[in-house]
Structure formats: C-alpha cells, structure tokens
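Input for the complex:
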Amino acid sequence: MLKDLIRPHAGRILLVVADGLGGAPNVDGITEMEMARRTNLDELASKSSLGLTDPIETGVTPGSVPAHLALFGYDPHEFWVGRGAVEARGLNLKLLREDLCIRANFCTIDRKTGIVTDRRAGRIPTAKNEELVARIQSAMRKIDGIEVLVHSGMDYRFVVVLRGTGLSTRLGESDPEKEGLRPRPITALTWRAERTSEVVNEFLKKATELIKDEEKANYILLRGYAKPPDLEPINDRYWLKAACVAVYPAYKGLARILGMDVLDCGDTWESELNTVEQNLDKYDFFFLHLKELDKLGEDGKFAKKVEQLGKLDSLVPRITGMGFDVIVITGDHSTPAVLKAHSWHPNPFLLWSPWVRREGRAEFTERGCARGQLGRMSALEVMPLVLANARKLAKFGA
Amino acid sequence: MLKDLIRPHAGRILLVVADGLGGAPNVDGITEMEMARRTNLDELASKSSLGLTDPIETGVTPGSVPAHLALFGYDPHEFWVGRGAVEARGLNLKLLREDLCIRANFCTIDRKTGIVTDRRAGRIPTAKNEELVARIQSAMRKIDGIEVLVHSGMDYRFVVVLRGTGLSTRLGESDPEKEGLRPRPITALTWRAERTSEVVNEFLKKATELIKDEEKANYILLRGYAKPPDLEPINDRYWLKAACVAVYPAYKGLARILGMDVLDCGDTWESELNTVEQNLDKYDFFFLHLKELDKLGEDGKFAKKVEQLGKLDSLVPRITGMGFDVIVITGDHSTPAVLKAHSWHPNPFLLWSPWVRREGRAEFTERGCARGQLGRMSALEVMPLVLANARKLAKFGA
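Predicted:
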C-alpha cells in the first residue's frame, strides 16, 4: 500500500545507524548510553520524537543483515539475504544469478587435535590474507567444471564464489562458531546439494593443504552459502536517490544489493561525515553506518563503549548542521557490553524533522526512548515515518 | 472473533470525533492542544485512560473516510468507500447498487488559458449552486441511455449520479487538486470504462457550456467516482442502535452507509449537543462529529485552533453530564496548523468509563496521551475497547 502513496519530493534524509547502539545495565544498573556524555544528543532528543524499535520481533536477536533490512523497510521474515552474497557485494564483485557465494575465514587449528584455537587466525593482516588467497587461486581455477573465484576481504576474511550451474546453498556450515571445537563437516542438507557439497569439500581439502604449514592461518572455515538476492532497489521502492557511507564491507555489500550508491570514505567517523557533506547535493537519502559501538559491545568493553558514545555526541552538531530535512539516529540492533553479543533489546530511536511532536526535556537513552512519544514500534515502521516527515507520502483515501 | 463475543447491554456510548484534533509544534515547540485552555479536558483525562491511535498505519496520512472507517472498526485496508458515494448519501439520495456517484465542484477557470484559478468558485452560496444545478438538470436528463441526476450540496459542492448498467468507476479525475493547473482530461483507466468516460465527458461538455458565462462558477471539477458500498451495518456488527450527529454532509453520508440513523441538528457544537441530549433514550451509541478544528488546521490558523479547543473544553461538563456509560474523545486524524493539512501523526485518545484505569494527574495533549496507559494503538482497537467498557463483550474461552 505504501508504494502507491509515494511521490517525489526534495526533502533530504539522513539515517544514522550507530551499529549496536543500545545496551543493558552493568552491575550498577546503568547502561552504556546512560553513563555516556550526551549533551548534544539530549538537546537534539528534546527537539525530536523518541521511541524504541524491534528489528525482527520481541525477544529475537537479529543478525546485522536482517536488522538492516528491517530498517530499510524490507521485512526480514519475507526477504532473505545470505551473508555470502553480502560479503561478495561488499568486495564489489560482479555476480551472476547462479553464483554460489561463501563467506570464508582463515582460522588457526591445533595440528594434532584438529580443534579450532582461533576462529580469526589471530586477525592476520590483510596483506597476509592476500598472499594466501593468491596462492589458493593460482593453484585452483576449476573443480569438476565449476569455476572457483577467491577474493580477499579485510583481516582474516575472504570470499569464495563458485560459478556454474546446479549449485545449491543447502549445505552445512563448517564454522563451529566457537573455539575449542573441530570444524564441522560440510554436508549436503538435501540430495540436490550433494554435488555442491563434493565441490566445496574438494575446495576445502585443496585450499587447506596449501596453507597447512602457516603459523596462524592454517585452516579455513566456511559459512553463509548464498546466491545473489533479487530485491527491489530502494530507489524504486521509495522514489529516492540513496547513498551508503560505511567503512565495513558487509554494510556496503548490503547497500549495493539494495541498489544504493556506495561512496568512498576514510575509516573514521569524521571522514564518513566528510563524505556525506561532500555529496549532499547528489543524493536525497544517506545511510550513514557507524560501526565501532557494536565492536566494543561484542568485545565486552563497557567503558570504551561509553567513551565512543561521547564521540557520537560530539558529532551531533555536524550531523544537524548539514541542512537535512529528516534525521534519524538509531541502531540496527543492541549490543550490550555485558552480553558481549548482539541482543534482543529494542533499539533507541530518535527522529528529528520540523514536523515531529517534540519530546521537550528528554534523554537519548534506552529509558528515555521507552518514554518517547513514538512508543515501541517495529523497525519496519521507520521508513514510513521517515518518508512521511520528508513529505513524500500522499494521503490515503479522500 | 470479536463478533462472537458481542452481547446486548444497556450501556450507552458517546464517541466524540473532534475532526483534526491532534497537532504539531509551532516554532516555540508547542502544539495547539498544549497551548489550549484544558481545565475540564485535563480533569476528565485524569479520570480516564489515555493513548494515541494510528488510523491506517505508521506514517500514513489518512483521508477522512478511511480514518472514520477505522474508528468504527472497519479496516480501511479491507473496506473501500468511495467519496462520491459518501457525498451522495450525505445528501440522503436513495441509490441503486449500480449507480455511479461523482463528487463535483463548481470552480473558476480563466477563460483564456483554461487554468483553474479557484477550485471552490469563491465558495458561491448554496442558493447560487441550486440555481446552476437546476439549470443543468433541466437541460439534461439522459446521455446515451444513462439517466443523469444532479443534486446540490453545500456551497460549491454538488453530486452527479449516473444511473444505468455497465457503468465503471475506473476513470481519471478531472480535479487537478491545486490551483494554477488545467483540469485533467477524464480518461478511461481500463477499456471496460470507455463508454462511461464518454458519458461523463459528454455530461461535462454540456454542463460547462450551460455555465460558461457565470462570473465565478464557470467550470466543473469531477472526482471520487464510486458505487454505493455494501458494508455490514454497524448495528448488526456490534448489536447497537447507533445515531450520527454531524453538520457536514460527508460524515452524515458515511454514517448512513454504515446504517446509522442521522439526526437533524443545527450547525453549532451546542446545537449538536442539544440533539444528542434530546435523543438520549432512543440510541445506545452516538457518533458526535465536531468539524471546526480540522478546518482551522487546514487553513493554518494555529491561534484559532487553540481557541476552538478552548471551546471543546467548555463543552466537557455537558458531555460528561448526560449520563453516558462510556465516553471517547478523539480525532479521526491529526490536522496540524503548521502543516495546513491532514497528517500522519497519531490521534490523541481519551476513554472514560467507570471501569478504566485512571491516569491520575494527566494532560489531554499529544504528549499527555503518549504517556497514557493505553499506549499507542491502532484505531481499529477503539471499538473493542469501547464495547468492553460498555460491558458488551462476553468472555473469550472458559
């Protein structure tokens, strides 16, 4: 229905996704946001409407991909975007419809027991990664008629693309997802996937043979088997011209899958803001992804996350000073440092436009947002609200 | 499911729809409701439960018809009621199932350029309207075997009913919806509508020829093509005896379409309340429609809307003094003066009965309602709440 109401409009929108923004209380009962310096955030909150959003549904902890899909208004119950495809598009690989994309990690295993001792191979430098990937690629071009393409990502991450016909995504993952376990065997989940499992196992066998004497990166974990998804481009869906400003490849990949332009930027929050500023006239929708809070949350670094939130606070004057008509500051999911992981807690959500009902005195914290006028809503309601405030929605009925 | 729970009961219900009630902040950050005198409203709010309702869905600005349908518990995603039919029933025309009803405006066009200079023909008096309609009707009874019925409404509004078989609603509207544009040509949107478009264009050609020398009302705009909808009557749906007290024809029309009795009343809020009072014993559900706030919002008259809200406040003792068992005061949609239009903002909602959980100290404002115990809900939840408080719903399950 929304689609029928959309009209063009010059209103400009900034969606700031502070990854892992929301938290949970430490032993003193205080969350990261509650402890952080929030002078500018609270001032903006007082002129905004606040609420909490659930990315998937109550109690469900989202991965980054479905959490972002929901924010962009693509129901994650309906649209599945596999991580392999996200990573491949994050490296800006051109994909064919039948390509099987696999997310791969170099890891360390104990040679005697075969147990994974470091899932990230001591976070080897990207240069080392590139050396190993080149070694594998030059030794392996095809397996049983299937083309093998191997591409380095950041640190210990790389992507394998298998190109051919009849490939299936229905395979078990080899990544045991924690240390102290052996990699899982890659098995076909249906008989139709049997040939694919043979090809993938053959790849794994040959590739790990090539790196087995490496000190750190002596094994490979595979997961996220996916074909490139075919989603309605965000520009068509909402009559926008959308740009993504993000440092991490996965978010760029998802943005590309949604048809956004991905802009070059440096790797600090400041340089990301510079990129937004330099492209203000070229787009009417900016997805600005800020990663660090999530990372600090996952590492359990409560105090560092508090500090980084203070940095977000210090960027608010730049964010509000760029002349946007609609500004959102929210998270994709919460990442409480006390949990060292993504969580099910709803996301703090701030919406500013000239038309919002202002909160008056307000705090941009989980509790402050829970008391906000928008109440608790689905993340799928974010885009409709954003579009309404950009005056891009016509009236429904007479 | 609701329907299976409904039982008869003597509880009497008053649903006050203050059209366009909710607002948005002015430059000082204050809404119309926040600025208004609310002595009685706030006192009632403190003994009531408060909340916010979304008529359609988050971010979607409703027209009056779907907004009211939702309030009465008819899902506007499911039930479509065309404006032509609403206007025709507003004039209390008896309609046949296959009638094509068209909402018509007299307007002013510039004779040289054909551009619409006033969509409302300077709000010509109803008497002038009647003169023109009589002129058109007496010159035109049939077009190509289709009966043509023309009926005056208020001011510049009138209704055309085409009676015959095979008529289609699938026509383009001629109303350009703003001034400074030419009327749009009326085209068939499907091949099945081609004959209808010929009839309508023939009507337009002949009718405008008859008025072309008028100073103000020298042209006609057509829109809202509709056949009479077939909705379950509200009395059957909820086991009620329902009456409508409204001044404007559209609301009377919708009430008639829902099977309510429409009571005669004067054209002030006081006289509407007199009508409710005089009919207290005859009905157990009153839909009391108060129009002015919406009009002032649409005209951008912030201060006047504030003043009119003070008037609503002054009527509260009469509203609460009539012995109703359940009282609701809410809007169909918000009409912020700063937007000069209907908006997507949720509606302030007040529910009083002896059984509600009282707010204690409360303000009947957008923010006060956002903090209310009912939270933010769909307008479709209003009737279930009203019926529950009237003790009209049996227990679900044992």
